[in-house]
Specification:
The protein is α/β, with parallel strands linked by helices. It is built from ten helices and nine strands. α8 links the parallel β8 and β9. α4 crosses α5, α4 packs across α9 and α5 runs parallel beside α6. The longest helix is centred in the C-terminal third of the chain and has 17 residues. The chain is globular, with a radius of gyration of 18 Å.
């Protein structure tokens, strides 16, 4: 990569950030497609987010991704947002997630979905699933304030039925859904799990985790033990990154880019 006086910066904002695979993805794409950009990570604590946004504007940084825990709070500092982002704040997560499912040949129309967590990733994924015609979405979270905001957005804008609960997930509720999604950071570089791993079920259920380090989270290993279909977190990460790359450059990466980036990831874990 030839960095010079014309090189533009694109960044990732989050906290913590040291685990991120995004610089590997984007710097590969910039180099391959001869885009004079460099991708870097900024570890930003919540009380510095406003100053950070001002800094991005002042330094004329070309673009940025936003990850945990700033996906929702960043919205109030933006100058403008597109129509879809008015609902979800960050639209590449949702698009990347749905593409990951569709690429596996899975039909999501009229499916019943349960989402664990109520942060920015949940918001983005829930809105995109609703726009694709899922039958129902239930958000499970320890507190209901943010969950209620998400389901209100769905119920007011789509035909999908949405509700929320702070009840623990049990076998009975899993038997009544088609897709289970973890959108929390639980399991990221640790052996924690967002559900009780002693639950045993025998049905067709698609289990998805947005956590990508480790690749096989405790959550996904639980799904494997129950012979359930799974979607890895790295699939969503790569797909949302390709969406963001297109937004910044007007270049559509090819399918081979997805496969090559995934091989880079496999080598890194």
């Amino acid at each position: 990569m030839n960095i010079n006086s014309d090189t533009k910066t694109i960044c990732l904002l989050g906290h913590p950030i040291k685990h991120s695979f995004s610089p590997t993805i984007h710097n590969y794409l910039f180099e391959k497609y001869f885009e004079n950009n460099i991708y870097v990570c900024f570890d930003i604590k919540e009380d510095k987010l406003k100053d950070c946004v001002y800094g991005i504007k002042a330094l004329d940084i070309k673009g940025c991704n936003v990850t945990i825990p700033h996906k929702v709070n960043i919205i109030k500092y933006l100058d403008s947002i597109d129509d879809n982002a008015k609902l979800i704040g960050d639209n590449t997560d949702g698009r990347g997630f749905v593409k990951s499912i569709l690429d596996k040949g899975y039909d999501i129309k009229n499916k019943k979905v349960m989402i664990i967590g109520a942060g920015g990733a949940c918001r983005s994924i829930a809105i995109e699933l609703a726009s694709e015609g899922v039958k129902s979405i239930e958000v499970r979270n320890r507190s209901l304030d943010r969950a209620n905001e998400i389901i209100d957005s769905i119920n007011n804008n789509f035909n999908t039925e949405a509700n929320c609960s702070k009840d623990a997930i049990n076998r009975s509720c899993l038997m009544d859904i088609d897709i289970l999604i973890n959108t929390t950071p639980i399991g990221m570089e640790n052996d924690l799990c967002p559900i009780d791993t002693n639950i045993v079920i025998d049905k067709k259920l698609l289990v998805c985790d947005i956590v990508y380090k480790p690749k096989d989270t405790v959550f996904l290993n639980w799904a494997k033990r129950n012979n359930l279909e799974i979607i890895y977190g790295i699939d969503m990460l790569i797909n949302q990154a390709l969406e963001a790359f297109y937004i910044w450059t007007d270049i559509n990466p090819c399918d081979e880019d997805f496969e090559y980036i995934k091989k880079l990831y496999e080598k890194s874990v």
